[in-house]
Amino acid sequence: MNGFRFPIVGVLFGSALIAGFITYVVTMRQRSHPKTVVDRAREMGSAEAARAGREFFSEKVVPEMKPVLMDLVKEAEAYVDRYFDRAHKAIKAM
Fold first, then answer.
1. CA distance linking residue 37 with residue 62, whole number of Å
2. How far is CA 33 from CA 20, 27, 29, in A?
3. Are 12 and 6 in contact (CB under 8 A)?
4. Burial (CB count <10 Å: 0-12, 13-18, 19+), residue 38
5. C-alpha 87, offset from chain centre
6. In this predicted model, what pLDDT tens digit does every residue of 21-75 receive, in sequence order?
7. What predicted TM-score, i.e. pTM, was given to this entire model?
8. Farthest-apart Cα atoms in the chain, separation
């Protein structure tokens, strides 16, 4: 594991958050009136559509994302391990 991929993941994550925020702001400006939770629930459609979306997510998206999430956890673990190794060395040097 090199130290180069971890900052890239952070940049990509930050970019995705910014893009989502911009999309939210643009959507809110285009609406004539704010919608309530009940209105949004009605727009979601039937329970059948929700079930189909849930099945698609659990069958297609989650298996594809699992290796990516595992890599992120491993990189975070390596980063934390390096930090604690430096902390141990600094304490021993006191």
1. 27
2. 20, 11, 9
3. no
4. exposed
5. 29
6. 888 888 777 766 666 666 666 666 667 777 777 888 888 888 888 888 888 899 9
7. 0.38
8. 65
